[in-house]
């Protein structure tokens, strides 16, 4: 069933990990996907090739989400080629688990720039394209870390907590044009970015608290994105949807 037929989606960091699963699932449901990469063009191209091979539509663009000129260039490209945007998925993000007393100001700035400034810039600059949709949907990929902070994720947790608030602001502002915005608070997801972190003793300890007794799959986050991007969720906005297996509630 093509729940997203004729819709145009932008997925930041859409070439690998959770972003790859999101890009593939959106395309599978009929959306034309524009996915972005910052340093790994190979994975992005492979994801686009897989989408096209499966009968979907997709293309890749380079984007540094925390760089204003880079965001403006991508928005201009979409404006010229597609003319509108129906779905924006703010997925690009980074993490570097570090003890609270060892985080440097450079570490802090880097995480906040990508994880919070990036979604702000992308959301703000994509607004005019989303207005043309008449039913736009913004989906932020957040984290359970934004709901409670761990001892080694001060910068990451702060960025993801801020993302929840940013989503609520965007939902209020965008409602006039029927633009919805929701945030997915993902739990322990077995993605490429999380591989190193999953071995962290603090993460292993947290995993013991997952009542479903397993890590989540990237496809489970992607399925939630499809739901929030579709008309099935037309009365859902400004919400934080937890996909965490019962890790936190």
Automatic annotation (TrEMBL):
InterPro entries: KR_dom, NAD(P)-bd_dom_sf, Sc_DH/Rdtase_CS, SDR, SDR_fam. GO terms for molecular function: oxidoreductase activity. SMART domains: PKS_KR (SM00822). Keywords: Oxidoreductase. One of its GO terms (biological process) is monocarboxylic acid metabolic process. Residues 7-192 form the Ketoreductase domain. NCBIfam families: PRK12826.1-2 (NF009466). Belongs to the short-chain dehydrogenases/reductases (SDR) family. This is 3-oxoacyl-[acyl-carrier protein] reductase. It comes from Desulfovibrio gilichinskyi.
